[in-house]
Amino acid sequence: MIKRSSLLILFSCLLFACGQSDRQTELLDELNTPIPMVLLPMEWEALADSCQQTVITAQQQLKILEKFRGEPTVDNFLKPFDRLWLVLLNTRDDAHLYTDTHPDQTIQDVSQVCKINIEEIFTSIRLSPKIYRKLSAIDASGASPVTQRYLEKLLDDFERGGIDKNYATRRKLQNLFTKERELGERFNRSGRGDMRYLTLQGEDELAGLPADFIERRRDASGEIVVSTDYDSYRPMMRYAISNVVRETLYQRFMQRGYPHNIETLEALLATRYEIAQTLGYDDWASYAIEPTMAGSVETVLDFIDQIHPAIAARATAEYQMLLKKEQQFNPLAESIEAWQVPYLRRVLQEELFDFDAEKVRQYFYFDSVKQGLFLIVADLFEIRIEPWDTPVWHESVSAYTVWQDEVLIGYFYLDMHPREGKYKHNQHLHVREGVEGVQLPASALVTNLPNGLMEYIEVRTFFHEFGHLLHQILGGQSAQWVRFSGISTERDFTEAPSRLSEKWIQDSDILRIFARNRRGDPISYDLLMQVQLANSFGRGIEYSDSLARAALSLNLHRGDPADINPHALMEWAYETYTVTGLTEDIYPHLSFGHLDRYSAVFYSYLWSQVIADDLFTVFAEAGLLSPVAGHRYDEFVLAPGGSLPAATMVEHFLGRPYDYTTFIENQKTGTDIGS
């Protein structure tokens, strides 16, 4: 039996040994206690015990709220409800962090169970008629607009969870939502965890690969083993001269999740459809898109139709240039396939723009890039980043505090380099949602960037993910409610600030802050122009691939999945929107991890890019390091979190509604410099 702390025993006594009014008083008193920034224990027994205590306490607090007597108000009911939600989020987010990063598999397993247990409480809350009735009874007419919006969103969340259904239907929905989460997790973990390998032998197979890349992958027997990890896969596809090697690795990469995720995906789609139908929606796409900026499937379809021609024209022009280059190697070539694109793109980047990727790498050391990024955001947002001496889950993890006007405003962790057992892609993780007077925001970046020389595209990834981190920290300063803290905006807006952050490496003066070689010499302006032009080449093909995945994500969730063949739909999406079509015997939809968290709204990435291009027009005019523009951006876009509709925040910043014009014009010019 798991032990309970004396604090929990005391709290339990207060809850059940006292009268109803006393229990309510104790719960209200807890609101005045700030929550320190302390992660869950990193020993599995203590972790399991801590999570169990959170579950028990949360269940007790939920009962108090359900049995609440008297007239519910913002102060005596909404605030305790928000505090309960906050504490649950803290535990769930720590568990998520450990699941993706902790080197101990037991800790990962315990954390996964903890996440599931916390999610079950969230589901119980969402399906509690007693909580819903009390929230509905709150008169917020005299409260602030933010509080009124919070209550409105809360009630909408309850209704989208089926609170207005009868008991049997609510129980059914609870089971379905639990099943949907478990299937999504299984699909995601199964796809990303399906590591495949390729052993390289001989000079022919190693030709073109950087020396440091080869040495890092030499095993004890002296063989060179590469994998489908991104840090291995991407350099292989760009540098390996051998067509056979690249095609083989590409197929293995695109076969991840096959065949075991076929059944999981079908079950996931069926479960989501059943949830939507039970709630009265036509399908899951209609349900998932309703609370976004787009608001409807029709708007998303129109968005795709509007930007597709410009992207297709740019991608087609780039494709023709790649094909001509391939015909120099193989005069009989009439087309090229997806596995040829990264290599041919790099070759053309070198030829057209005198771009030498290996030469450029000499100017991008991870530590220098990190320090340069810290300096840039410090100037732009008038903040200070300092090292933080705190326990971490691996020796390679670093931790930092963030200060503004000598006031501590948040924390973050950087887990940036690949290792066994760690999440294989790049992501920003919420660690703490900032709530004014209660707790400071905290974030973690979990990436697989090299601990040494970086490619320009990897620098872009770092800036992108750090954009999420800044949104979380700066948007968590004045939040009154956890529902609106940090990146709590509409799903299709969440990528806009991170996409905007990428644009800071398009400015030569900014890059020269940190782009220096071993001797300390800054990268030249001529080389920077080559870098930026080369980086722009091929973006049309990238966008066309993103369009294909957006269409796949959307249409997998439109209509009855019994009438949908996921593989055929995947083939349609890639044939319709990409310029290369599909290679035989590949299954990219089975390792499409975004189908878990984003489900039908993968279009968000392009939607956010369109908005980011529009937002950047302000910085392009004022200056990329303009503290005036930075302050406006923080005030109108980052700081509000989700307290305002995203469209309203963008309009406040731009002085007008956003539109697609800048993005479409950028596709016509074929360059993203200054855009």
Describe the fold and architecture.
With 675 residues, the protein is mostly helical. It has helices at residues 6-16, 20-30, 44-66, 74-101, 105-126, 129-136, 145-160, 167-192, 202-206, 211-216, 230-239, 243-254, 260-278, 284-289, 297-329, 341-353, 357-361, 366-381, 456-474, 496-502, 508-511, 525-536, 539-556, 566-577, 594-597, 604-622, 627-638, 646-654, 661-669; strands spanning 197-200, 224-227, 384-387, 398-404, 407-415, 427-432, 442-446. The strands form two sheets. The protein has a five-stranded mixed beta sheet, with helices on both faces. Strands 1-2 form a two-stranded antiparallel ribbon. Strand 4 (398-404) and strand 5 form a beta hairpin. Helix 15 (297-329) packs across helix 23 (539-556).
Q: Shape from CA axes?
A: globular
Give the count of helical stretches: 29
Spatial separation of the terminal alpha carbons: 60 Å
Largest sheet: 5 strands, mixed
Q: Return residue spans where pLDDT drops below 50 for at least 5 consecutive residues.
A: 1-20
Alpha-beta content class: mainly alpha
The number of distinct β-strands equals 7
Pick out its properties:
single chain, mainly alpha, five-stranded mixed beta sheet, 59% helix, 6% strand
